[in-house]
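Marked as duplicate of an earlier ticket. Keeping the data here for the record.
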Amino acid sequence: MRSLADEVRQFIALAAEVLGPVAAVRDAKKFIETSEIDAAILDIRLGDYVARPEEAEVEASFRRQTTYWRWLVRALGLVLLALGAIILINPAVAAFLFAAPALGTADSIFLRAIAARDLTIGISLLAAPAISLPATTLFLFAIAIIPAIDLLLVISHNGLTPTFLPHAVSLAVILILALWGKRLA
């Protein structure tokens, strides 16, 4: 039978970062809330707490959902980074997304400001999941205001034409991730 030390050595050999050990459930929860954990070695007894297999299964399911959520938030961040870079290079892309032709230098500057906004939010979404699930969830709710306003602007200018779809989809994706994060937090 392999010992706990053997298990830990095997994780280290795979270049894993070891968190812990911890002596209390409270301390373990701190690691869970502040770290991305892909695997865990659980002792059946943690202080005065005795873990049951069902609890371990539930916890593993929760960890998988949290990992998926973090990766999807980061994917959204990558999409926004790419969109920001494209708009920065070619502001006409933003003009197309808003169904408003770029008319002059001032319009180009304004559209590049939109690119800077998307780049900033993209970078934030890449980093935030590693910092805190609750803070990232709050951030998602806050940035949902941006596509909501964009959606209202496009609909008020163009009506219910297909030009509102990118803004509606981005609003839906951000709200779904925010609500999912709220459920996980």
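See parent ticket for discussion. Residues 64-184 form one domain.
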